[in-house]
Design a protein that fits this description.
With about 190 residues, the chain is mostly beta strands. It is built from no helices and 13 strands. The chain is globular and about 45 Å long. The protein starts with about 25 loop residues before the first strand and ends with a strand.
Length: about 190
């Protein structure tokens, strides 16, 4: 009977837990920005089919810029054939959208007057290390517009070069540095 529990409950070590791995997140690495041009993650390979990134309080140094994701394949960053759509709403109900056909990066946000505010969110990448005809992603980002209103962005897309095996990614602003913030990369354990 739960009403008869008293005192302290015993601590449980996560190392003792078994059989809960399918679908779990495994921390791989993190990058903290300090007046950084970009935040790069290496080590994307077939260890995990899917990757998950958490974006925590990214502060753009330059106003009115998109937050972007770039992919690395075959020894270089890919500079074309990015396809994505980004939809966003301010708390005042104003729609912010962009659609990119054959762009030079994934736009995770639309152009915003950030006004010194930050961006947080998450990004899911589906099977980036498979040499597939396209490698889809989806993301959700939130921030504050310079007028004080909250804004949220849903973005999804794929890289359309065909047969692209992604081995690293970098996050950056369309122009200017990232003043501060942290991004963490996790692998998602297959079922």
């Amino acid at each position: 009977d739960a009403t008869k529990l008293t005192g302290n409950l015993p601590a449980i070590s996560g190392a003792s837990l078994t059989g809960i791995t399918a679908g779990g997140l495994v921390f791989i690495s993190s990058v903290s920005a300090s007046a950084s041009a970009y935040m790069e993650f290496t080590g994307i390979d077939s260890t995990y089919t899917n990757y998950f990134f958490t974006v925590d309080r990214i502060k753009p140094a330059t106003n009115t810029q998109e937050f972007e994701l770039h992919i690395y394949s075959s020894g270089a960053y890919v500079t074309s054939n990015y396809y994505n759509t980004t939809y966003g709403y301010t708390s005042g109900g104003n729609l912010k959208t962009s659609h990119v056909s054959s762009g030079s990066a994934y736009n995770l946000t639309d152009t915003m007057n950030w006004g010194g505010n930050d961006i947080s969110g998450q990004l899911y990448y589906n099977d980036p290390s498979a040499a597939a005809s396209y490698t889809p992603y989806n993301s959700y980002m939130v921030g504050n517009h310079s007028d004080g209103s909250a804004v949220s962005f849903l973005s999804s897309g794929w890289q359309g070069s065909g047969g692209t095996t992604i081995t690293r990614v970098k996050f950056q602003m369309a122009s200017g540095n990232i003043t501060s913030g942290e991004i963490r990369m996790y692998g998602i354990v297959d079922a």
